[in-house]
Amino acid sequence: MPNQLIVEGPQQGVLRLTLHRPEVLNALNTALLGELAETLAAAEDDAEVRAVVITGSQRAFAAGADIKEMAERDLVGMLEDPRQRHWASIARFGKPLIAAVNGFCLGGGCELAMHADILIAGENAKFGQPEINLGIMPGAGGTQRLVRAVGKALATQMVLTGEPISARRALEAGLVSEITQPELTVERATAVAESIAAKAPLAVRLAREALHKAQDTDLATGLRFERHAFTLLAGTEDREEGIRAFQEKRPATFNGH
User: Fold this and answer.
1) Less CB within 10 Å around the terminal CB: N or C of the chain?
2) pTM score, two decimals?
3) Is 131 a catalytic residue?
4) Domains observed in the chain
């Protein structure tokens, strides 16, 4: 079976991953999810990788799960579905993940995009959770992450009607951070990733964890974590380098120590 995931880099600290099942609009089957999970796990341990961009094609980021594969699984097959492990592995990825989305971003594709820390969308992007049209529902975090991303009202409408929203509506709702021309989406996402990759790795890691805490805990707990992380960074070489570079009016060079 040919590779269903194109891996490029890292270059300037950025690894680029391209979903590549063009014949089915990058539908996420078990093999592709497994390849993605394995690649991200390796990137986690690679010091040269400081950020990852994940994208698809101009026509589709990913149009959903592989329906043919899903139809072959009964109740027991779904309970033992190896994709659950792959999704859990992807969710554990600890470095900045930027999604560059063009075209269809539906079902599992939308769920995958919502695993990203930052989402850059082309003007032609369509986001949706259409599982209800098949007599099922989102099963890889769609109901939970979508509520956190766009709010209960819009998430409920999207999940229960199965109707997608445009890139512009996704921007207004807070699902994506910015919109570009479709031909510039990957370029812009890569530029954002390179900007992050140039920052102090420990500061990026702890800031990212603090931002995730804001979604998962109450304000008081989140503030305690933030202060603890802020204090820990006082003991890093990167902090000294950052302050020294600012005083000397030069770019900082961070080594992750």
Assistant:
1) N
2) 0.89
3) yes
4) 5-198 (3.90.226.10), 201-248 (1.10.12)
